């Protein structure tokens, strides 16, 4: 991080406002333009300067580009933290800047509300489908309690929530994790998750679009990898498990929450399930083949479908340093 470029990037009132906004939450370029009352091309130019200086990061989700405050590269985190503190002090000591920031946050509230409204509309469209499925197994809150206890035996560290869906698992575990990356392939689901998680500190959680069969992360990036009701969508479960193993550090853990083997064929058509659950023998073979040492699973009865929690530890002698073929896209 070049210090003179950093201070030049902040030598503009609009970019100061953007820095304060991104410290509160991740925003799309269009949302930033809405808050700032400026054109999107103009905001994009300001964003480019902040990104070039290492103060912000861009990532694409479909046709949208989202911005977040950077966590800082190696050795840069203390500088970023100090700048955040400096801007907070400036807001306290400068009434004019404080008023501008307060006005911006009021506009942020409207964006939060719009996100929540969109999420509620999505839930309304799909509520009956999800309610039908939930009625077949133990209540979600009980499953979550069992999972939390099972994972409490060791620190979570950096967590990857594969197929985050509504973001519920990320929300559940964020207080115990150092940081959570919530990944989903479906753009609409990511926007639902963003609405659910937008109250959490941006330094603790990141949302990423990606495919569970080609994860956009380097090898050995995470301490805990979670697949909650995701693996039954895989035509070949070995592929996402191999990718999960690749990005898990030696000694790290995987937790797979899914259905025990069943014969409810209608779930293939109504809910696009590619697999009708898994037997313990199948899961043990899959985990061992991908480099995880499984422990005895938990079986959660409480409905027609039995929920299982399979946990395994990443073996050090099988870790690969081969990078993913699909790195997070760098947007010029």
Key terms for this structure?
332 residues; alpha/beta; three-stranded antiparallel β-sheet; elongated; disordered C terminus
What does this structure look like?
By secondary structure, the chain is α/β, with parallel strands linked by helices. The chain has helices spanning 3-9, 13-24, 29-36, 40-52, 77-93, 95-134, 140-151, 168-173, 187-197, 238-247, 266-271, 280-290, and strands at residues 27-28, 56-61, 64-69, 158-162, 179-184, 205-209, 222-228, 248-259, 292-294, 298-300, 307-314. Strands 4, 5, 6, 7, 8, 9, 10 and 11 form an eight-stranded mixed sheet that branches. Strand 7, helix 10 (238-247) and strand 8 form a beta-alpha-beta unit. Helix 3 packs across helix 4 (40-52), helix 3 packs across helix 6 and helix 6 crosses helix 9. The protein is elongated. The chain starts with a helix and ends in an 18-residue tail after the last strand. The model is unreliable at 318-332 (pLDDT under 50).
Write a short abstract of this structure.
The protein is 46% helix and 19% strand. It has 332 residues and is α/β, with parallel strands linked by helices.
């Amino acid at each position: 991080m070049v210090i003179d470029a950093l201070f030049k990037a902040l030598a503009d009132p609009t970019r100061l406002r953007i820095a304060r906004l991104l410290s509160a939450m991740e925003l799309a370029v269009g949302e930033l333009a809405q808050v700032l009352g400026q054109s999107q091309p103009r905001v994009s130019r300001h964003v480019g300067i902040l990104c070039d200086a290492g103060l912000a990061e861009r990532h694409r989700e479909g046709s949208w580009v989202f911005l977040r405050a950077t966590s800082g590269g190696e050795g840069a985190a203390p500088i970023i933290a100090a700048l955040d503190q400096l801007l907070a002090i400036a807001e306290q000591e400068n009434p004019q800047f404080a008023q501008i920031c307060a006005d911006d946050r009021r506009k942020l509230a409207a964006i939060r509300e719009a996100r929540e409204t969109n999420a509620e509309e999505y839930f309304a469209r799909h509520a009956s489908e999800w309610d039908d499925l939930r009625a077949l197994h133990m209540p979600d809150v009980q499953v979550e309690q069992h999972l939390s206890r099972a994972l409490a035996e060791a620190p979570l560290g950096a967590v990857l929530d594969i197929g985050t869906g509504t973001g519920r698992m990320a929300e559940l575990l964020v207080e115990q994790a150092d940081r959570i990356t919530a990944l989903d392939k479906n753009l609409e689901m990511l926007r639902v998750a963003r609405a659910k998680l937008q109250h959490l500190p941006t330094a603790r959680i990141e949302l990423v679009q990606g495919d569970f069969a080609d994860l956009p992360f380097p090898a050995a990036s995470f301490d805990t990898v979670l697949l909650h009701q995701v693996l039954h969508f895989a035509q070949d479960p070995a592929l996402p498990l191999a990718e999960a193993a690749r990005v898990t550090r030696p000694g790290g853990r995987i937790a797979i929450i899914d259905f025990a083997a069943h014969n409810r064929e209608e779930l293939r058509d109504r809910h696009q399930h590619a697999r009708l659950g898994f037997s313990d023998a199948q899961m043990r073979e899959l985990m061992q083949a991908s480099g995880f040492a499984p422990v005895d699973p938990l079986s959660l009865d409480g409905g027609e479908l039995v929920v299982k929690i399979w946990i395994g530890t990443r073996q050090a002698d099988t870790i690969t340093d081969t990078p993913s073929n699909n790195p997070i896209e760098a947007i010029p």
